[in-house]
Every structure is written in structure tokens, then in C-alpha cells.
Amino acid sequence: MDQNQSEESQYWTQRYVENRMGWDIGYVATPFKEYIDQLTIKNIEILIPGAGNAYEAEYLFEKGFKNVFVLDISQTPLDAFAERVPDFPKSQLLLGDFFKLKGSYDLILEQTFFCSFVPTTENREAYVKQMANLLKLDGKLVGVWFDIPLTGDLEKRPFGGDKELYLSYLQTHFDTTIFERCYNSIPERQGNELFGIFKKNEIVLDMSCCHPELDSGSHKTL
Ligand SMILES: C[S@@+](CC[C@H](N)C(=O)[O-])C[C@H]1O[C@@H](n2cnc3c(N)ncnc32)[C@H](O)[C@@H]1O
């Protein structure tokens, strides 16, 4: 673990140990539950980065999704998860830094993860780029983002944001399928959350210049 990673890990572990985890609702959030309930293909590979206690992973696992990967930089919530869901494969509990993860997933579920980083442009661009890197070509990022004012107070992690701000970053690598105020937030978060489904952008190259066999104006979609 490098210095930065270990500082982040210690920061979050401390929050868990001191039970300062206002983000943790203690059960799978309704927007995720309803989204998961309509998924039909059970063998897709799903990543939950910055998963914390990962109630949505537990729910997915109970529903028969077996290729679920839970990632966190802190060992503490991973241990708690392993104790709570003993049958979940330990090999799918990943301790590490999201920014260093390699892999290729069909679906990434995000909750209070984007907003857990210090809100610099650099961090936010890196997050979006890495999300896109970790998805297969037709992969989706699905999540719930806080729709609350962003303050500069570093003790206010997770930080707020709004639709326009999130989109300004996400649209560099994703097409928006839906990004709306949640109609099904848990009571405590009513009116303060956005639900989004984002599809990784396809890279479209104009190959007509270098492939004469292609019709003029043809595009190849990679
Ligand atoms: C605000 S909490 C959210 C936890 C969970 N998603 C939830 O909504 O209950 C942020 C989580 O991200 C984890 N985290 C922060 N930075 C990370 C990183 N670079 N890589 C992996 N996990 C990270 C923290 O340890 C913490 O569990």
C-alpha cells in the first residue's frame, strides 16, 4: 500500500471504528432494490466499489447473482460483510484502491462513493475515467448520487453535488440513459438523491480515411 492509499484506508477505517458512518443506512436502499429486482440475467459480473457494508451485494447474492465483487479500501467493512454473509465467496471481497483495480465488469453499482472523494476536478475526472475503464464495452454504471449542496468542509465527507455538476464529469465517458430525482428514496433521503443509469460511451472512429474498402463516411464502432 502506498502512502496515499494507506492514509485513505486509515481515514475510512477510523470512521468505521468510531461508528461515524452517517451514510450507512443499514439495509439495501430502495432505488437499488427496485433496480436489482428487474434484472434478469444472473451471471453478469457486478462490481460495487467503495462498498462499505455493501447491503446491495448481500441482496444481489441472495437473489442468485453470484458474480458480485465488493471492493473497499478499508478492511473493516469487508470483515463485517464476511461475518454477516458467511457464504459469500471471500475471493470476491476485494481489499484495495479503486483507482488501481483492473478488471472488466458488466455493471457497476455506486452509492456515496463519488461523493466520498475530496471534490477536486482531478479526483472527479479520475473517478469517471476509472469507472469507464472498469466497464465492458456495453457496461453500465448505475447509482444513487446525493443531490445536496457541496460544502468545502472536509469533515463533511461524503460531499454533496448536483445533477449539472455530476453530468459535467460523467458525460465525458458515459451516455445518460436516465438521471432523475429518485422517486423511491428511503424516507430520510427523500428529495436529496438522484438515480442514474449511464452507459459507457462507444468510441467511434472514422476509418474511411485509412480503409478504402469502407464506404465513404462509414464509421467503425469499436
Ligand atoms: C461514504 S462511504 C460509502 C459506503 C457505501 N457505498 C454506502 O453507501 O454505505 C465510502 C466508502 O468508500 C471507501 N473508499 C474510499 N476511497 C476508496 C478507494 N480509493 N478505493 C476503494 N474504496 C474506497 C471507504 O472505505 C468507504 O467504505
General description of the model:
The chain contains six helices and nine strands. The strands form two sheets. A seven-stranded mixed β-sheet has the order 3-2-1-4-5-7-6, with helices on both faces. Strands 8-9 form a two-stranded antiparallel sheet. The longest helix is centred in the N-terminal third of the chain and has 15 residues. The relative contact order is 0.12. 28% of the residues lie in helices and 23% in strands. The protein is globular and about 40 Å long. Strand 4, helix 5 and strand 5 form a beta-alpha-beta unit. It has a single domain, classed as 3-Layer(aba) Sandwich (Rossmann fold). It binds S-adenosylmethionine. The site of S-adenosylmethionine has 22 residues, from helix 1 and strand 2.
List all distinct small molecules, including ions and cofactors, that are bound in this structure: S-adenosylmethionine
Q: What CATH architecture do you see?
A: 3-Layer(aba) Sandwich
Helix content: 25-40%
Largest sheet: 7 strands, mixed
Q: In sequence order, what are the helices and strands, one letter per element?
A: HHEHEHEEHEHEEEE
Structural class by secondary-structure content: alpha/beta
CATH fold name:
Rossmann fold
Number of spatially distinct domains: 1
Oligomer: single chain
With helices defined by DSSP (H or I, 4 residues minimum), what is the helix count? Answer: 6
